């Protein structure tokens, strides 16, 4: 088969399949929702919701599970051009000139992992031995190692080096940043 012929077959294929869509950064859910207005196009954009400590305190964030990517099910013969030129879409992921579909089973397993939700809450916790950074108070910006956790993750003792000596201090867990990212926690499950 000639290299350019495979894409021609897919362009005229009237069988719907799932494809990965590359979108503009932070616009995955917008592009997916805009695409729902297209006839015979289904989209799936799994997202995670998590809390992160900031200078303003704990703030909720919602981000795409796969930053700048989501899934769309469509028949290339009917919808390729409309999907490709939909708002906030950069491209349909392909290898060379060949569009690559994602199996229905992969999407089913992903939906199962997301527990049927489009936005899943992920709790980013701390464990003994984790490196953490203070986000508030006079020691803000200093790093330490979690020594123990008390009161159901509300109070944490950390070992810090300060003024040339190691000290064990107890702080409120909400004033600490961990090295864990929500995606790490989601993948570890």
UniProtKB/TrEMBL annotation:
Keywords, ordered alphabetically: Transcription, Transcription antitermination, Transcription regulation
Gene Ontology CC annotations of this record: cytosol
Xref: InterPro entries: NGN-like_dom (IPR006645), NGN_dom_sf (IPR036735), NusG-like (IPR043425), Translation_prot_SH3-like_sf (IPR008991)
UniProt name for this protein: Transcriptional antiterminator RfaH
CDD domains listed in its UniProt record: KOW_NusG
Any single Pfam family the record assigns to this protein: NusG
UniProt-listed GO biological process terms: DNA-templated transcription elongation; transcription antitermination
């Amino acid at each position: 088969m000639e290299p350019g012929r495979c894409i021609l077959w897919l362009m005229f294929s009237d069988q719907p399949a799932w494809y990965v869509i590359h979108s503009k950064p932070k616009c995955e859910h917008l592009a997916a929702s805009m695409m729902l207005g297209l006839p015979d196009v289904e989209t799936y954009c799994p997202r995670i919701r998590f809390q992160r400590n900031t200078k303003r305190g704990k703030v909720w964030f919602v981000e795409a599970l796969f930053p700048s990517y989501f899934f769309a099910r469509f028949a290339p013969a009917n919808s390729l051009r409309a999907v490709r030129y939909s708002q906030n879409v950069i491209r349909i992921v392909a290898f060379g000139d060949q569009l690559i579909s994602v199996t229905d089973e992969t999407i089913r397993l992903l939906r199962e992992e997301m527990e049927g939700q489009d936005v899943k809450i992920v709790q980013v916790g701390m464990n003994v031995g984790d490196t953490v950074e203070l986000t508030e108070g006079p020691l803000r910006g200093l790093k330490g190692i979690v020594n123990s956790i008390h009161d159901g993750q509300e109070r944490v003792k950390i070992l810090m080096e300060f003024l040339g000596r190691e000290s064990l201090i107890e702080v409120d867990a909400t004033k600490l940043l961990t090295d864990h990212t929500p995606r790490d926690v989601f993948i570890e499950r």
